[in-house]
# Entry
Amino acid sequence: MSLLEVEGLEAGYGPVTVVRDVSFSVEEGQVVTILGANGAGKTTTLRALSGVARARGHIAFDGTDLVGRSPEWIVRHGLAHVPEGRGNFASLTVEENLRLGAYVRKDGERVRDDMQRCFGYFPRLEERRAQTAGSLSGGEQQMLAVARGLMLRPRLMLLDEPSHGLSPLFTREVFKILRNVAEEGTTLLIVEQNANLVLDFADHAYVLETGRMVLDGSAEQIGADEGVRRSYLGMV
Amino acid sequence: MERFVQLVIDGVAIGSIYGALALALVLIFRSTGIVNFAQGEMAMFSTFIAWGLVQGGAPLGLALLGAFALSFLGGMAIERVLIRPVEGADQLTILIVTLGLFILINSAAGWIWGFENRSFPRALPDGSADVVGIRVAYESLGIVAVLLAVSGLLFLLFQRTKLGLGMRAAAANPASSRLVGINVGRTLMIGWGLAALLGALAGVLVAPQLFLDVNLMGGVLVYSFAAATLGGFDSPKGAIIGGWIIGVAETLAGDYIGFIGSDLTILVPLVIIFVVLLVRPNGLFGSPEVVRA
# Structure
């Protein structure tokens, strides 16, 4: 059984439906990416998974249906969502942001260990642990957002455009750490416009177009696909 | 000189009451962006509950505790029933709802308890101490001590507990708070409950000095608005220090500026609000939030 199995997902906000009949799955321990242009419905799909967008259909996470569950319930069951725009708490300190990532956890001892683990990944955050999140640079803020997600010790982590607004240098650093995280066994579902980067280390890829899944395959297959190369990889 | 020091002490005492109500305003503004015009009336209602319990034969201490508990629950209920449906609506809608709440509570109190003046029992000891020739009322000292203790407890709640961290997070970024598993609706309810409790405290502290009637908090609310504006509407520290400054300014102006006397002291907060908005709209300790791109 897959860790996440989505079938016939319809999602949107209020009266507006953004994605229709989307199906995909994520195996435990894999890195899966959803590619697609602006407005294809990538963010809405993630938001449906974490319970903040209206959803219909089936979302089975570790065998439990998530449709209709509150975001709090979903987080408590091990699904972390690092949203578009990072979602940091600007007026709170770096350390408080990290503690918030573990808000629903009851094992205080191990939360402290995990904070050290995050500082191991991102030494810059340790240097700035008492600073407010709003005072960090864009790259550091993205690191903080990823670290906040890790603080849940999630079984599945959703990442929405982790490279957004970052310099190539920072982007490489963030992805290097994501690779580590994945190798240590956290399952990742990444939405990205920067397809080159993510196909490089994903296991499986889906392509979303105007609210529908149009392609899926191994990251290698998708990376080699003529149409994908033309539309998303900027190669002719 | 002695007169001056006495006036300052009286000012700090009355300013502590403004500060408590200003703190209630700040608590709600920080978490929801709502300026709660009904805060004073909620406090008046709470004070009447305490008075009613005393009339019913309860000892004063128990009556106060009962009123605080009921205020906390009432504040939560108001958030859940009246404010939740308009959260996220435009400022004007919310303004009208809180003004409606003002009128509703005022009328309800009149309907239940009538419109006559009542005298409210003193919870703090009467009398005064003589400190190097300056007469300091025990009540003044008590009020300041109560405010400091309450702000200390609030500080511990917000800075040292998980619930407090969640409440600050929900105020800073509600969308992201839901994604880390904070029940934002619940933190907002608790925020309103705490604000109502602070208002109740201000009410029972000020009531013995005035008469208890349905307009008990009308004047106090204006001074508290001045305190919150001066201190910065998003700063708890600012609310308290702002309250003290307003209180001292009021007593000094009433005594030293001839034409103000005791009838025109209401001018003091209004002038202060006006000048602060003109010169320093974020107040002394308020902060426009800064985020680097």
Remarks:
- The beta strands of chain A are 4-13, 16-26, 31-35, 54-61, 64-65, 79-82, 156-160, 187-192, 204-209, 212-218.
- The domain at 4-78+154-232 of chain A is CATH 3.40.50.300 (Rossmann fold).
